[in-house]
Every structure is written in structure tokens, then in C-alpha cells.
Amino acid sequence: MSKSPVPTPHNNAVVGDIAETILLPGDPLRAKFIAETFLEDAVQYNTVRGMYGYTGYYKGKKISVQGSGMGMPSIGIYSYELINFYGVKNLIRIGSAGAISDKLKLHDVVIGMGTCTDSNYAYQYNLPGSFAPIANFNLLQRAVNIAASQGTEVTVGNILSSDIFYSDAGLDNLASWKKMGVLCAEMEAAALYMNAARAGVNALCILTISDCPFTGEECSSHDRQIAFTKMMKIALELA
Fold first, then answer.
1. Which domains does the chain have, with CATH numbers?
2. Which of 51, 57, 161, 204 sits a CA distance of 20 to 30 A from 31?
3. Residue 53, annotated as binding a ligand
4. What residues act catalytically?
């Protein structure tokens, strides 16, 4: 008999510890904040590499939250294991993003209907062309409706998942994406959407604008950890 793949090198959890719906903030301290602030009977199931994971209940529904780290390689590992080893069916990234569109300002909420990328993540699938990573429509539609019911204005559209935080091209890189109507830049959603598509499960990315590179405005690291509650409340209702 083959050895069980869990616990994994990246996750202390055993099968059953993690709910079918999980929130994935990049920052593990944001996961801790959500568990302590919003979940009842929260139990910590992961501490490996400081990437905290918790399972609890929100309005009577079982839900998990776990840090996913920075960049597509990191969320690629965590989401793959959650889907294929732990049976997670709905993965909702809740992260920060830099505004590309001039219409966005600090603390605005964006939902990624699709994501462009400069990553080579799709290379592994040996596709005979380009793959367009998109959100699950049911989760997307529900999130938009939930936001409206909560009085939160959201912008839905195309985002950028980039491998590069400090680009040698500077703002010229983002300016090129702006011409194509891309709303904002982050670093994880494309890998999440591709992993979900390959496994036939559901994924969605909800973002809060944490900085505006073209104006120089930015939120503090403390705000990024605990102040982005509007997107958290939208995501929690998706359980």
C-alpha cells in the first residue's frame, strides 16, 4: 500500500481537518486575524513554515482559512495539495493588489473575472496554445450579489497575475497592461485558476487595492493584515 500523501511537507493537516471551502489570503497573519475575528470554534490545523491554517464555523457553516504565501509557485503548491490531497472544492483567494486602472483607489474591492499573466505556469500542461485562466462563474455571480447585499461596491474584470514585483521596466510594464483595460496587479490568481481548472473545482479571486503605483499611494502593512474586512466578509458568505 502506498504511503498517504498527507500530512504533506507543507501542511500538518490530516484528511478531514480542512473544509470544502477555504479562504486563501497570501499573508498567514491575515488568516490568523480572520480565524480569530470571524470564525467560531476555530482550530489551527497547520503551522508548517508559519503558513497558518484554521478551520471553524461561520454562521453555522464549516469553512477554512490558510495563508498561501507570495507568488504563483507558493499558491500553486498550497492550492494543489488542498485540492488533490485534502478534497477542497471551493478556493477563494483574498489578497491585496496594486491599481492599474485610474478608476481604482485605495481599499476598493476588485473581483478577478479573468487573469492575464507573464508567468510560464501553464507550460506544464503542454497545451497547443494559450490558456485563459478564469474564475468559476457561480462563485463570481454569488460574490457580486453578496457584495451588493452588504452595500460594498465591487469592480469586476480582468486582472494581472505577475511573477515580478520589482520590474526592471518600472511603471512602463503596468502602463502596457493598462492599455488593455486590466484593472490591477497581483501575484497569485493565475496559478490558482489553472490548478482549479485542471482539477475540475471552483476558484475565485477577490482583491483589495493596497497601493496605487501611478500615484504613489499605499496602505501600511498593518492595514494589509487586518483592515481589508469588506472582501473578507464577501468571501466568508460564500461558504
1. 21-236 (3.40.50.1580)
2. 161
3. no
4. 211
